Amino acid sequence: MRPLDTAYMMDLVPVIAGYVPLTLFMAIVAMIAALVLASMLAIVRVLRVPVLDRVVAVFISFFRGTPLLVQLFLFYFGLPQMVPAMTGINGVTAAIIGLTLHFSAYMAESIRGAILGVDRSQWEAAQSIGMTQGQLLRRIILPQGARTAAPTLMNYFIDMIKSTSLAFTLGVTEMMGAAQKEAAGSFLYLEAFLVVAIFYWIIVEVLSVGQRRLETSLGKAVAR
Amino acid sequence: MSCQIEITGLVKRFGGNTVLDGIDLCLEPGERVAIIGPSGTGKSTLLRCLNFLDRPDRGVIRLGDLSVDAARASRAEVLALRRRTAFVFQNYALFANKTARANIIEGLTTVRGWPQDKARARADDILAQIGLGDRGDSYPAAMSGGQQQRVGIGRAMALDADLMLFDEPTSALDPEWVGEVLDLIRRIADGRQTMLIVTHEMQFAREIADRVVFMEGGRIVEQGPPAQIFGRAQDDRTRAFLRRVG
Ligand SMILES: Nc1ncnc2c1ncn2[C@@H]1O[C@H](COP(=O)(O)OP(=O)(O)O)[C@@H](O)[C@H]1O
Ligand SMILES: [Mg+2]
């Protein structure tokens, strides 16, 4: 057994750190897009919008039923062969689209569950003062559902951050891609991947602390 | 008799169960009508149909110049009707994600399009009227049942509705809070707000109502001034009910 080359690892820290912003960028953009999309999907399902409801059900089933890696390859390598406009789509964009669609399918289901968990009296009270369907969803139902769904959605965000590492298979040099390149030069695979693992770990731990804070403050807001 | 509000031939079925079996009712401007009757008789359903929380199968609801035919009511007509009828729920049904003040403001800003500052001033005025001037920033979960129901009434007051509907507003309350809520409703009644109130508080109905309607089996059995209904009801069913409730 050889000892870890800790000096090399220390050298890698600033290199990998330089790619943290790209990883966070992909995760945050995809998360925001996925939240919006998932809310719309959930609403279609809750309101049982004719036809669309079936389409959404199939969409959700497909994106939950196939691996993220397969989906990313479909978008990046597959679709451009059919849709010429997508030729030359860059890896970051493809990764963001893939993450968005994949995670929106999961998030839609938890948002749907949270919406269904909102008491019927809340719908009726909103209707009774003359709110439109859109107003009551936006102002009364979704905010309450969001409170219930927040911890789960936060978990998906954490998952999303880890999943951005798959973007390296689309040729994106993000944290994982950078570690891979470094290792390919130095042959110190263990050190390189250990550093990148620790980076992910720290990011996720920081977010977990944020998650716990969020839960406490959400808990307080209703019981003031 | 000049009807400000006119309900004609209202029918509501749940599955094969006819819950409202042709209700006709006319309310004069400022009239306060109490609805009494055994439970399961369609009182709540009647109120809910007037607000389209339950969609009537048949019948016409006219509020002043707004006439809505249940069988072919458009979405816009339903919204218009709801904006002119305010509903007070038995279980308060306050928006759990909003403070007392925000519960009252919501109908003014979101529904009626008032600017925020004007709505806030009106809400503070209502909070003072309902005796909660200092609780505007409290969330429903932190308030007593009596306070919550007063906010529920405040939210309804903010709509300046042609008709206020109260569905057993004190039935879910601990006895200690009933008085303050009845006092508030009494003050609204004194202001000659047109209202329909379903209640089991017979003494209260006798005090504030211009007219008492006795319902049973989805129909209006008998109606008249409180003195008549409580003193010399004509129908056996009315008398039997009043004997039961003491
Ligand atoms: N959403 C519903 N679905 C099916 N039946 C209902 C529904 N709402 C009310 N009912 C039935 O209608 C009848 C009248 O109910 P309700 O109007 O609540 O009576 P009341 O308020 O006089 O006690 C009851 O038999 C009740 O079971
Ligand atoms: Mg009832």
TrEMBL record, chain A:
This is Amino acid ABC transporter permease. The keyword Membrane applies. It comes from Paracoccus rhizosphaerae. It is found in: Cell inner membrane; Cell membrane. The chain crosses the membrane at residues 20-44, 56-79, 85-106, 183-203. Keywords: Amino-acid transport, Cell membrane, Membrane, Transmembrane, Transmembrane helix, Transport. Residues 20-208 form the ABC transmembrane type-1 domain. Its main location: membrane. Belongs to the binding-protein-dependent transport system permease family. HisMQ subfamily. It is a multi-pass membrane protein. It holds the Pfam family BPD_transp_1.
From TrEMBL, chain B:
One of its GO terms (molecular function) is ATP binding. The keyword Cell division does not apply. It comes from the Bacteria. Pfam families: ABC_tran (PF00005). InterPro entries: AAA+_ATPase, ABC_ATPase_HisP-typ, ABC_transporter-like_ATP-bd, ABC_transporter-like_CS, MetN_ABC_transporter-like, P-loop_NTPase. SMART domains: AAA. Residues 5-242 form the ABC transporter domain. Keywords: ATP-binding, Nucleotide-binding, Transport. Belongs to the ABC transporter superfamily. This is Amino acid ABC transporter ATP-binding protein.
